[in-house]
Structure formats: structure tokens, C-alpha cells
Amino acid sequence: MGQVVVITGCADGMGRYVAKMLAAQGHSVAGFDVDSQGILSLQKELKDIGGDHLLEAIDITNRPAISLFADRVLALYGHVDTVLSNVGIGFFSPFEEVNLEKALQCLEINVIGTVAIFQAFIPSMRARRSGKLIAMSSLVGRIPFPFESIYSASKFAVTGMVLSLKYEVEPFGIQVALIEPAQVSTSFAAKIHVLPPENSVYRDRARRFIERDNELIKTAPTPPYAAEKIVKIILSPKPSLFNQIDFMSSFFLWLNQVLPRSLRDAILVNHMHIKV
Q1: What does the domain layout of the chain look like in residue ranges?
Q2: Per the CATH hierarchy, to which homologous superfamily does domain 4-188+222-247 belong?
Q3: DSSP secondary structure of 230-246
Q4: Tens-level pLDDT at each residue, the chain (276 residues)
Q5: 10 Å Cβ neighbour count for 127?
Q6: Is 0.90 surpassed by the pTM of this model?
């Protein structure tokens, strides 16, 4: 019997591939995204695959809409097995030059968005004493990268929130897990890579960082490859708390645990070509 999986941010990228892979395996997908055209095209693809699916165009910051979405999902399926919080936006800027309104938007979407979708389904999972809450974090949720202070803060927050939540919901049979990709070969980074103004003291290093990041993206895991890993985590009876998609994430996290900070910092600065 197939599972019922809720996915946020499913109109594009990894989320879209995860939805299609789950549908192809006979699972029911309920999801939403702010991209209405992406949702429409995914609806057509899932219809062709077959099965019963519920997709809607919803902004993750619209909390009343999320609550109503949860009501519709539970009315249709009776329960939800797994919630994957996949929605998120990037943020690139020297800290000194951060636009605080845009930073607030990033934190609202990445952090509070995850909280909102989890809160919407915890009561039904708790009553059923079963369910999985999976959050898309990042390598930078444990290893901060320069020029990504706000994005790192959002992913550190997601990681901390899930680790705290674990203690509260496990007694009710609810499992939690984090997924921590380093990079995936999508347009995600390109959308946020904006050079500081010409008079910025950070411009040269930011330029080198962007150029290096673009190089690394060329050899990063593809969305289908990442989606296969994510689907395995979703369907696992007992997923690990921390889950990496690629060797780079696992390697850097291992270095972060065993090396002294000065050496870790030197490796990161050299790796991203931003040594002064």
C-alpha cells in the first residue's frame, strides 16, 4: 500500500523530481508551491503517471492557506505518512551590506515556513502515533560559508529547530530527519549570485567566491540523483537524523568534526578561492 507524502516547494528542482518518483512508485503526493504554472505542469505529469494526488498553488508565508491545505489533505487521505519541508530561497550578500527586509523574507520562508507546515500535520500524526517530519537543511546549516550569513543562519535555525523538535514528538511515534546537501546542479545559486556594488570592499572576494561556486555546480549532483536519495530517506522505516546527498557534504562535515578550527577555516577559504 502506498504512502501519503506532503511536499512543499514541489514545482521545480529536487521537489518536483521527488514528487514524480514517489508517484511512479504508487505513493500519493500532496504538495504546494508559489509557482502556479509549475504546479499546473506537475499536475499534468502526475496525472499521466497515475494515482491520486493533490497539488495547489500556495505561498508558504500564507499560514491560513497552509492550515486549509492540511484540512483538505487529511479529508482526502485520512492521514499523512511523511511531510517533506522543501521550500526555501537562497541569500547571497556581504553581511555588512545585507538588505534587512530581504533577510527577514529569507528567514520567514526558510525557517517559519518549515515550522508552519510541520505544525499543520503534527496533531494528526500525534493522534495516529506515526509519521515523519523531514526538513531540507544544508551543509551550511552546520558549516557556515562566507557571503551566505543570512542563508546560513536560516539553515542553522532549521537544523536547531528539528533537533529540538525531536525530543518533543518522538514520544508520540513521530520521527524527524534532516537532509543536508552541499550543492545540487540547479539554477538555485545563479538566482542569488549578485556582485556587491563596485565601491564595495567585498566585491573582489565575492566575485571569486561566485566564480568558484559556479565551477563546483558543474560537477554537483543533478536534481534526479538528489531526488533518488531523498525518496529513499522518505520511504525509510527509520531514517537517520542527519542525511547527506553527496560525498562533498559528508567529507566537509567529517572534517568539521575532526580538524581544529584554524585548519578548517584555512581549507574553506582556499576551497572557495577567497584567501586575502
Answers
A1: 4-188+222-247
A2: NAD(P)-binding Rossmann-like Domain (3.40.50.720)
A3: HHHHHH-SS--SEE-SS
A4: 799 999 999 999 999 999 999 999 999 999 999 999 999 999 999 999 999 999 999 999 999 999 999 999 999 999 999 999 998 999 999 999 999 999 999 999 999 999 999 999 999 999 999 999 999 999 999 999 999 999 999 999 999 999 999 999 999 999 999 999 887 766 565 667 889 999 999 999 999 999 998 888 888 888 999 999 999 999 999 999 999 998 878 888 888 889 999 999 998 899 899 988
A5: 11
A6: yes
